[in-house]
Design brief:
Pfam families (chains A, B): Aldedh
Main location (chains A, B): cytoplasm
Family (chains A, B): Belongs to the gamma-glutamyl phosphate reductase family.
Radius of gyration of chain A: 24 Å
CATH class of the largest domain in chain A: Alpha Beta
Protein name (chains A, B): Gamma-glutamyl phosphate reductase
CATH superfamily of the largest domain in chain A: Aldehyde Dehydrogenase, Chain A, domain 1
Oligomer: homodimer
Low-confidence stretches of chain A: none
Function (chains A, B): Catalyzes the NADPH-dependent reduction of L-glutamate 5-phosphate into L-glutamate 5-semialdehyde and phosphate. The product spontaneously undergoes cyclization to form 1-pyrroline-5-carboxylate.
Number of helices of chain A: 15
Chain lengths: ~425, ~425
């Protein structure tokens, strides 16, 4: 018997040609219908969500995770509004990227096309189910969703509502598939579906992403892991440095573009380390430091090599004092995950070297790392933040969900 | 002890920052020095190549493979000329792709950067060693080359000559690495070097590519497999159709953009199948056909399901008679490898549907599939032809060997 995963991926694959033909208007009408349906049927959705919450409470899920899982009228309105914002974004599909004629008279066009079928593998929050469906359908793709088991009842209801809504539109209902099998094996089966899935995008914690990268034979867009640094250079304006570091650490510690390690030039540290860290300590951030940090500041735990290599996603940070820009660059080269890196300096030559030499998706001069985000860059909703160098890097807006195709027109050209 | 593969990849990784700083002039000077050195030391190279040829003859290698392996003065001059052509190509690195300012005043730039370290895994021909080195270095990348064991002596000498040439230039010699361990395990070790290699590009036969796709945890750009079709529609000009089909099959059967299967509309087949296939039979192409083909033409073997799914790379082809454009599209959907597909027709609506609906890197109207090639598209030398949809699709010119990076400039912006 065919497995659920293979069956649903096959249905999605079979719907890909029809999706590829949809006009922008047809896709936008479908997204609007999806948004309307989520609002109209919010009571059903809240009831389904309550099942997930009850199961979570029974299993001892932490209050903060339960909060991320919970849906209510306001949150559903926000999710529906997210779909309407995707309607407003320009449709990249069909865009003519290049057009040229060759000496033999053949005309070549390069145009944007959908990727085909996208596999999304993600964790708890049910809003990702709607976001991913909206972004993939807007770009003419089919999508096979595999969310976390903690949100299964919510996700099942969401996909039921969205598929029902598609029924009144031009879009094929099979373009949207949810894998309900919550066994880990269903993820691993998805990862090997070459020929049915064109790409797999994991979105979640480090373990989820590592499993996908290590086991997928389908092409992967790696997202998310962020060990981000702020380097306070000798010439930094102290107030600006303190403000950027505080924002990068504390404004939302749980996300990938938050800071894990503060690198401080020795000259700044000697005069102002306590001032730089005071707001952190007030916000109950646990500070772990190198020996030099410990000698300048009381009550700082030792930051181990493992600490420098950890994405805390929490109110914990490392501090390391460095002698030079070069030492800061070497530290970032060793521990960074190529996500977002910042230098605070008034020395233009140092800023230029940092922005040139640091190998990361986003490199900042005098700006908090927290801005690595599709909305903040003005791209609108994002399917994730790519930390790999192939295909897409940084916040992935709609064009990251497309491929290209060459169309060649001639009148009998053959190769000599 | 560290393995050869890991050691050399580490050296390449350590050279990446220096490569990233090289100017276009410095890179071009290095490529020119490499070309000069190949010419100046051609006698050494021919002697090394003779070792490979002798070993090949002893092992019973076929004359055609030995011919592909052989180097002589003319071929070396051609290879050196290839490097000089890469010098002439525009350098994509540093190109400003986007620039915008956000309402909070931060300025965002998206620029092209090198990928970093590229792993190339390929088979026999030693010219690939030079091409890959030239393309990767021109784009500011380091490269770890792993060629076939049949060309090991040639490849070792080529890399010795190229690295010696780099010694007189600004480029770090470690940017260029050759894996000499000819055990298959060295390939599989490369495929898992996440953190040292940014991408692996396989170039070779189906088995090599399948091994890379199935075992790599490093991102892969899949190249090469081509089961390409020519569909002769009801309204096709017969002479043009015969000429295109013949060119697509016979001009160079061993390459990926050659035709494996000819699809013929029933109306054309009934009147003109013999005429369409006459040039093929004269060129000693073995024709395998569907039952309808067999009933129209004597002496045609049966084309099995496996035949339709085989890339012959040889003087063999399949013929299938179809009732409609839809049947042709369905056949291509089932057996095509998303490489290059052609329709010969005078019916514009059919051409438009074919070019829209066929999911392939290059789709042709009244042009031979043989044009899917970097030189033919005017891109210059290519590192391969991508048959996947991520990152690059079709002939990969220099921009396919780059990634991007966001540089953000501000004056203390923090996220609210």
């Amino acid at each position: 018997m065919i497995s659920e995963v293979r069956q649903k991926a096959t249905w999605a694959q079979e719907a890909a040609a029809a999706m590829n033909r949809m006009t922008t208007e047809q896709k936008n009408a479908a997204l609007s219908a999806m948004a309307d349906a989520l609002i109209a049927r919010q009571d059903e959705l809240i009831a389904a969500n309550e099942e997930d919450l009850r199961r979570g409470r029974e299993n001892g899920t932490s209050p903060s995770l339960l909060d991320r899982l919970a849906l209510n009228g306001d949150r559903i309105a926000g999710i529906a509004e997210g779909l309407r914002q995707i309607v407003e974004l320009p449709d990249p599909v069909g865009e003519l990227l290049e057009r040229f004629e060759r000496p033999n008279g053949m005309k070549v066009e390069k145009i944007r096309v959908p990727l085909g079928v996208i596999g999304m593998i993600y964790e708890a929050r049910p809003n990702v189910t709607v976001d991913a469906a909206g972004l993939c359908l807007k770009t003419g793709n089919c999508v096979v969703l595999r969310g976390g088991s903690a949100a299964l009842s919510s996700n099942r209801k969401i996909v039921e509502i969205l598929k029902d809504a598609l029924g009144s539109t031009a879009l094929p209902g099979d373009a949207l598939q949810l894998i309900e099998d919550s066994d880990r094996a269903s993820v691993n089966e998805m990862l090997k579906l070459n020929g049915l899935l064109d790409v797999v995008i994991p979105r979640g914690g480090a373990a989820l992403i590592r499993n996908v990268v290590e086991n997928a034979t389908v092409p992967v867009i790696e997202t998310g892991a962020g060990i981000c640094h702020v380097f306070v250079d000798e010439s930094a304006q102290l107030e600006m440095a303190a403000s950027i570091a505080f924002n990068a650490k504390v404004q939302r510690p749980s996300v990938c573009n938050s800071m894990e390690t503060l690198l401080v030039h020795r000259k700044v540290a000697e005069t102002s380390l306590a001032e730089l860290l005071a707001p952190m300590l007030q916000a109950n951030v646990e500070v772990r430091g190198c020996p030099d940090t410990q000698s300048l500041l009381d009550g700082v735990k030792t930051a181990t090599d493992d600490d420098f290599a950890t994405e805390y996603n929490d109110y914990i940070m490392n501090v390391r004092i460095v002698d030079s820009l070069d030492e800061a660059l070497a530290h970032i080269r060793r521990y960074g995950t190529k996500h977002s890196e910042c230098i605070v300096t008034e020395t233009i030559a140092h800023a230029e070297r940092f922005l040139q030499e640091v190998d990361a998706a986003a490199v900042y001069h005098n700006v908090s790392t927290r801005f690595t985000d599709g909305f903040e860059f003005g791209f609108g909703a994002e399917i994730g933040i790519s930390t790999q160098k192939l295909h897409a890097r940084g916040p992935m807006g709609l064009p990251a969900l497309t491929s290209t195709k060459y169309r060649i027109y001639g009148n009998g050209q053959v190769r000599g």
